[in-house]
Structure formats: structure tokens, C-alpha cells
Amino acid sequence: MNRALRSCATAAAAALLAGCATLSIETDRAQLQAFSQDAFGANVAQVATDEARREAAAEVERLLASPLSADDAVRIALTASPALHALLAQSDAASTAATQSARLPNPVFAFERLVRSEDGATEKDIGRTLSFSLLDLLTLPARARIAEHRQQQLRLQSAAGVLAAATEARAAWVRAVAAQQSAAYFEQVMRAAEASAELARRMQSVGNYSRLQRSREQAFYADAAAQYARAQLAAAGAREALVRALGLDGAQAARLKLPDRLPDLPMAPRDEAELARRAFDERLDVRLARAELDFTARRLGLARATGVIDGLHLAGIRNSETGKSPQKGYEIEFPLPLFDFGDARRAEAQSTYLAALHRTAQVAVDAQSRLRETYGAYRTAYDLARHYRDEIVPLRKRIADEMLLKYNGMLIGVFELLADAREQIGSVIQSIEAQRDFWLADAALQATLLGHPLAAPAIEARAVASGAPDKAH
């Protein structure tokens, strides 16, 4: 009776320990939704069923019904992107594998039946063996903790994937809107140049323009048409990049509408001191590095515990033979460490832990440096965009108005007027590009603060125009 109670207690304890390693997919997704809501104010769609896919498609259609904002672009990416959902499904598979690694292997039952015939008599020997890995049972708590650390790693990796998808969608939206805005401006320039070229043709026909003057107007129109064609191509490419980032199909892409222009600059840039006060330990890259370090440390502890004896099996045996009382007993099986003392495995685990420790330290160094670099690019982009908006573009417009007055008063010729028009066009395009670079830098800064360091857009040094037109006309 006591032996039976002890056997039941042992089985119950094993079942309880095995039950600690339950499937954690629901927990993973709940934590992922909390991160997504906190970072982007949007949920990551669950599209495992047909009904969920229909709901996700309906949400995408609702967001596409009006010109798409940057925040709505992020919502669509988190709802419809097949690449993101593939990444999350792969993470679920890895989480399930981690859960499986913390479970006890099934016991093994062996049945043996032997028959012996001698002098017309038949004897039967029947053997029954039930065995399981005692080492797996003893190390189950340690393996359960390792599995939990592995699942924490996977949760952080999933969050990093969501952050990368959202950042890519926002950056693609900025580029697409800026390219469309530039193309629209080049179209206006081309239409104005076309009208000017037609007027020059008519004025030449009545003798008020020379051939050179008309040719210059015609050349300006031809250049404007070429620039518009290139701008259209760039806008189409940026739009398709946005479609890919959002995961839209052909029908959805056809209904995609973008706003006419980028948002206005904020009244003031973000304060660097305020950003520096944000919790450094909450960054995804830092948390992921520490999770990897904890996971490696747990594996190191298990490697040390099982370095010499890496197998231990216990079996209960019952043999019965014709005409004899049954035999009962047990069997213990373990490898003898004669040739492999486990020192290589322990050294490998120790080196892996040291590598993870140094990687964690480097991640901390990189995180602080990246934040300073990204904020510097953000602040420079803001100052440049504001400078173009408040200084350069208004000055160019004022100069253009004065040049037109001089042209109407016959104080300058067509060449000077066209040269100034080209400079004004260049200033407007550079202003759009500066505004684009600011919003890209803003997206990069947001991603860096959350723990996904992203290179800020390169800001090129431009030659300063002299503003002195050629007098030949």
C-alpha cells in the first residue's frame, strides 16, 4: 500500500512539473498586443482563421477609404502585412519548440515473450519493462526555467519585428508622399513652362521675340517635361515601396490614396534632455540582449550539472515464467565517463556565456551612441527644414517677383528670368526634400528610442548658388 502511494505521488509530481511548461502562444500574443498598443496605438491582427482574415480585410478597406495618414499606414502594416504575420507565426513555432523542450519525454514500455519447447513441454517467458529518463526528471525544473527564458527572448524578438514593420511602413509613407508632392510641383512647373513656350512662339510669329528668346523658353519647357517624367517615375516607385511595406494586394493598392503634402513641421523639436531621461532599460535591444544573456546563463548551469553524467534511465521490470513465481526488480542505466568527461561541453557553454556577456555590454554602448547620433540627425533635419520654410523659399519667391517686375520693365531678358526660375524650382524641391528628411529622421528617432536603431537619412552638403545670372541674352 505504501509503495503504491509513493508511486502515485511520484507520478503526480512528474505530471505537475510537466504541466508548468504549457503552451505560451496566448501569453506571447497578449504581451505583443500590449507593446503594440503602447508604442503605436494599434493592435497586431490575428489572422489564424477565415473570420479573422475577413475582419482584417474589412479594417484595411476602412482605412483606405480616405487619404492615408502615417499612423493609418502603421495600422495597415500591423493588420495586413504577410511578411509580419509570417515572422510572428515563425515565432509561435519557436515558442512551441521551447515549450516542448521543457516537457518530460514519454516513458517507454517494452514487452518480451519467449517460448521454449523441450521434451514435448512448452515453457513461456514473458518480460515487461517500463522505463523513463530519471535525469530528465531531475533536470526538469532547470529546463523549464531555460524554456521560459527562451520564450521571453522570442517575445522580445516578435516585438522587435513589429517595431521594424511599423517603422518601415512609416518611412515608406513619408517617401511616397514626398515623391508625390515633388511630382505635383514639377507638373505645375511643366504646365507653366508649356504656356510660356506657347506664348513665346506666338510672340516670335509677330516679331516681338527673337529666335534665341523663343528657343530658351522652349528649352526650359523641354527640361521641365523631362524633370516631370523623372518625378513621376520616382513617385510611382515610392508608392509601390509603400504598397509592399503595407502588404496590400493589387485591388487594395489601386484604392490607396495619399495626402497632397507632408505634414507641417512641429512647433518645436523634441528636447534631448527629455529623451535622455527615458528608461534606458526598457529599450527592446537592451532587453533582448539581457534575455539572451539570462538564457545562456541557464544553459551554462545545466551544462555544468550534466557535464559528466548526461544520461540516467530507471526501469521497472517484471518477468514471469511458466510454473515459476514472477520476478520483479528495477534497472538503472547510465553512461560511464571513461572517454568523455564533459569538459568540452562545459568549456563551450562557458565561452558562449562570455560571448553573450560581451554582446550585452556592446549593445548598451551602441544604444547610447545611436541615440546621440540619431538625435543629432533629427535636430539638424528639423533646423534645415525650418530654414527652407522660413528663409530660403520666401526669399526665392520675393526674388522671383522682383525679377518678373524687371522683366516686364524690359530691364532684364528672358535668360535671366529663366535662370532665376530654375533656382526657385530647385529651392522648392530642396524644401520638400528637407521636410521629407525631417520626418524620416523623426521615424528613425522613434525607432531608436524603442530599441530598433535605424540610420537617419543622409543630409548632403549642397553648393551655394551665387544668384548672379549670366548677362548674355
How would the blueprint of this fold be written?
Blueprint: H1 2-19, H2 25-40, H3 50-64, H4 70-80, H5 82-101, E1 108-118, E2 121-133, H6 134-138, H7 140-205, H8 211-246, H9 250-254, H10 272-276, H11 284-305, E3 313-321, E4 327-333, H12 343-408, H13 414-450
Antiparallel strand pairs: 1-2, 2-3, 3-4
Helix pairs in contact: 2-7, 3-4, 4-7, 5-7, 7-8, 7-11, 7-13, 11-12, 12-13
Task: Explain what you see.
The termini are far apart. With 473 residues, the chain is α+β, with helices and mostly antiparallel strands. Helix content is 68%, strand content 8%. The model is unreliable at 1-22 and 463-473 (pLDDT under 50). Strands 1-2-3-4 form a four-stranded antiparallel beta sheet. It is elongated. Strand 3 and strand 4 (327-333) form a beta hairpin. Helix 7 runs antiparallel to helix 11 (284-305) and helix 12 (343-408) runs antiparallel to helix 13 (414-450). The relative contact order is 0.10. It has a domain at 266-307 and 342-473. The protein is built from 13 helices and four strands.
Largest sheet: 4 strands, antiparallel
Helix content: 55-70%
Distance between the termini: 116 Å
Strand content bin? 5-15%
Mind telling me the C-alpha Rg?
A: 36 Å
Q: Give me the count of strands.
A: 4
What's the tally of helices?
A: 13
User: Segments where pLDDT lies below 50 for 5+ residues?
Assistant: 1-22, 463-473
The SSE order reads HHHHHEEHHHHHHEEHH
Strand order of the largest sheet: 1-2-3-4
> Could you say which overall geometry the principal axes of the C-alpha atoms support?
elongated
What is the overall pLDDT average? 79
Structural class: alpha+beta
